[in-house]
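Dear colleague,

Thank you for sharing your sequence with our group. We've completed the structure prediction you requested, and as agreed, I am returning the results in plain text so they can be pasted directly into your records. Please verify that the sequence below matches your submission; if there's any discrepancy, let me know and we will rerun it promptly.
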Amino acid sequence: MQQAEDFRSICDQLNDLLADLDDKDFARTTGFKGWSIDEILRHLHVWNRAALTSLQDPDGFGDFMKSVAASRGLNFRIFESEQTGDLSGRALLAAWREFYPELADAFRAVDPKQRVAWAGPSMSARSSITARLMETWSHAQAIYDELGADRSDSDAIANIVVLGLNTYGWTFINRSEEVPQPVPQLVMTMPSGVVRTFGEGSGDGAAGSERIEGSATEFCQVVTQCRNIGDTALTVTGPNATRWMDVAQCFAGPPQDPPPPGARAKNSA
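Please find the predicted structure tokens below.
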């Protein structure tokens, strides 16, 4: 399953970024909800382990979700810290680094259509590992920003573009809004420079009436709420596309607003 290899490559890139950090660096606060680098890495590791459990041990995953539900009265970061035995810094990095190849190998070997349980409805194995890819890529953005590091994406982010498009309806349903039709067409310039079109277009005979065009990286930043649409150079045409980019959310959970303009950016120092 190619998505498993794409997940591995994005994890490898994050590992390269973190490889030379000192223990104290992992305590640095990022622009994502004030989470530290430690808290981001811990979050990724806990839910990577949960994804493997859902694939290999459905009963065990059910038990894990019961413990998640029981922790709701606590700070969820405390729960995730307990799940990792309070690992932090380079020890936490080593645990995450050792585990993610195991997760990639396990998903690469299964039928992409196999159903697996998750916090909400069940999903295909392909969707599950794609969600891990998206989570890793989007949370890593906060670390790149905090460290003032340049990011060089690969065309593996096409998986996030597809996920963003597939969750167009979810964004509106999650906010108790009608899903506006037609769905915008995406014309994305991939990191390689290749231009790809996603979606079938407006479907109403008015070519280009609903359209988003520009950098695939910037589109992924918007649908994962790493950036406000106002902080990108994306060209957005049509009321449906405009509303979508204002509130896009490709991840599960209650509706969340994107960061205000200028709130998330790479540190200059």
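Summary note from our side: The radius of gyration is 19 Å.

Kind regards,
the structure core
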